[in-house]
TrEMBL record:
Domain Ice-binding protein C-terminal: 185-206
Signal as UniProt keyword: yes
Keyword Chaperone: no
Entry keyword set: Signal
First and last residue of the signal peptide: 1-26
InterPro entries: Ice-binding_C (IPR013424)
Entry-linked Pfam families: PEP-CTERM
Protein name, UniProt field: PEP-CTERM sorting domain-containing protein
Amino acid sequence: MLNRFLSFFAASILLLSSAFVSTASAGVIVEPTPTGGGCCGFGERGYWFETLEDMTFESIWLSNSSGVSQNYDLQILQFSAAPPEFGASTTDFTQLGLFENQSSKIDLNLNIAAGTILGFLAYDNDLNETPYSQDSTHTIGANDISFTRLIRQTLNNNDAVSSEASTSDIGAIGFEYSLGQAPATVPEPSSLAIFALALLGLGARRVKK
């Protein structure tokens, strides 16, 4: 009987300790600095890259020279192959997110596996253009990643896109990420604590019997 109580006690203590351990990790910010220029009234600009590690995107936004754009549209695309160079184009993409008329950073919980080709396109509705950045290389995890300019020659979210590797002007789209896949939803700490206390009480009741 004592051994059984000790087992209940050990399990309860383990649950109580896990209830107060935080699983959150600080994200890393990638923010291409706006140059002050931009393009174009008729189309959208951004960039694409291939992820080399599992990542969770926590937030994303478009910046201009004053900070986060106050009225912008942003689209997240996944490609099955690298977008072709301008002169050719592709509609072979999957839309992972479409956000319109945004005025602040967009909260995400987007799990992306290593080897995924991602594209971001955005448009500032107040400036009637996509603000540019020339920060096209960033360190993500243990790797230096090059962002390649991505363009759409219309403002229609379903239209074809192209790549332009010949220029370093990319859309000034920033994001926050953490490495690895986001964990599955776990019970709230308060729920774990209540369950652990109930388990401890059950063990004590059995010992009294």
